[in-house]
């Protein structure tokens, strides 16, 4: 897989040296050189302009692990990104230098059964930015396949382009759950993924959306972004029954689809219990590996449990939602940092603290 970058300092040949933010150990990040690979005939070289911090990035920083992915050697961070084309390969026909693009971060093999069946997000040989052992995109420049670089509409900013990656998670979840104009939606969790899932559900036509969280600030943000109603809940599993009653009353109708965007025993238990008979529960993102949940009562009501992993073929629709204004991701970007050693460290700590931080963005 080809990736790399450029800027700070001069290389031995007189060219500017590409620099990147490397994860060297627990809570240890350092900006240092990152070699740019050769440009293949179907590749483009992109100068990074906007890179967001994802929860998985924070997990890697704090524990060197996210789900079953483990960092065993130094790795360049970042996968939510957009930039400007600097150079194109000899066979690239659709992009030219100067084009602003959003990058889809995963390169699948296109040979396995999953890829051939169109579900390339499940490719066992996927090479994904900042998923060990693959390096990421928090660098001055990277090299990437041209077919995974999507030209931004004139009225869509580079920051919005970088937001296509988290938004794609919500779009893929809504497709998997068949969200439409008659689907009443419950969202468990008002963090970044819960919020983009809410925005996507609205864009898909969901007429009523209730979002649940333990944090007042995030609930207020969800309300400002268009949630019909918000419900504050506790972290105590013994409160599930009374909270389900409150959630159902707040919805005022049957809950057709619940998105669990938190992934705890309690949130999944609440989702399975609150969802109407014949409905769906979609587990979004990387929740706990093992959960104790009331599956049998849910099964008796024919509640379907579906999962998602990343996304597939979402960038064109995300960009159309952004172009037309059906989705506005700009309010989600709460903090911005430059690309210096001090700012990289501060940005990751800001993201890790949470609080008022929703999406932390680097402007390179």
Automatic annotation (TrEMBL):
PROSITE patterns given in the database record: ADH_ZINC (PS00059)
Protein's UniProt keywords contain Metal-binding: yes
Cross-referenced SUPFAM superfamilies: GroES-like, NAD(P)-binding Rossmann-fold domains
Keywords: Metal-binding, NAD, Oxidoreductase, Zinc
Cofactor(s) named in the record: Zn(2+)
Residue ranges occupied by any Enoyl reductase (ER) domain in the UniProt entry: 25-362
InterPro entries linked to this entry: ADH-like_C (IPR013149), ADH-like_N (IPR013154), ADH_Zn_CS (IPR002328), ER (IPR020843), GroES-like_sf (IPR011032), NAD(P)-bd_dom_sf (IPR036291), SDH-like (IPR045306)
Keyword check for Zinc: yes
GO MF annotations in UniProt: metal ion binding; oxidoreductase activity
A Pfam short name: ADH_N
Gene3D superfamilies: Medium-chain alcohol dehydrogenases, catalytic domain, NAD(P)-binding Rossmann-like Domain
Family: Belongs to the zinc-containing alcohol dehydrogenase family.
Protein name, entry field: Enoyl reductase (ER) domain-containing protein
């Amino acid at each position: 897989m080809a990736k790399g970058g450029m800027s700070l300092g001069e290389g031995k040949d007189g060219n500017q040296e590409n620099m990147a933010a490397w994860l060297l150990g627990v809570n240890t990040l350092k900006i240092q050189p990152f070699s740019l690979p050769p440009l293949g005939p179907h590749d483009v070289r992109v100068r990074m302009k906007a890179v967001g911090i994802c929860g998985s990035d924070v997990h890697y920083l704090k524990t060197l692990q996210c789900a079953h992915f483990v960092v065993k050697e130094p790795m360049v961070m970042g996968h939510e990104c957009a930039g400007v084309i600097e150079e194109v390969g000899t066979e690239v026909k659709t992009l030219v230098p100067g084009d602003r693009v959003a990058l889809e971060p995963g390169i699948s093999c296109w040979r396995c059964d999953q890829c051939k069946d169109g579900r390339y997000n499940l490719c066992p040989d996927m090479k994904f930015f900042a998923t060990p052992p693959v390096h990421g995109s928090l660098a001055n420049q990277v090299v990437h396949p041209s077919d995974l670089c999507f030209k931004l509409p004139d009225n869509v900013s580079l920051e919005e382009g970088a937001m296509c990656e988290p938004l794609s998670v919500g779009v893929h979840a809504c497709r998997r759950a068949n969200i439409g104009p008659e689907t009443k939606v419950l969202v468990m969790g008002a963090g970044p993924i819960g919020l983009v899932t809410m925005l996507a559900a609205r864009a898909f036509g969901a007429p009523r959306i209730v979002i649940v969280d333990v944090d007042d600030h995030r609930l207020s943000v969800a309300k400002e972004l268009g949630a019909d109603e918000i419900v504050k809940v506790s972290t105590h599993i013994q409160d599930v029954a009374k909270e389900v009653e409150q959630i159902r009353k707040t919805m005022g109708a049957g809950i057709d689809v619940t998105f669990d965007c938190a992934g705890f025993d309690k949130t999944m238990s609440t989702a399975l219990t609150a969802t109407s008979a014949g409905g769906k529960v979609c587990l979004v993102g990387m929740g706990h590996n093992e959960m104790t949940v009331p599956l049998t009562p849910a099964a008796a009501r024919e509640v379907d449990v579906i999962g998602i992993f990343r996304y597939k073929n979402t960038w064109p629709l995300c960009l159309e939602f952004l172009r037309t204004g059906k989705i506005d991701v700009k309010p989600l970007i709460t903090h911005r940092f430059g690309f210096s050693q001090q700012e990289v460290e501060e940005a990751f700590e800001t993201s890790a603290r949470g609080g008022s931080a929703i999406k932390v963005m680097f402007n390179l």
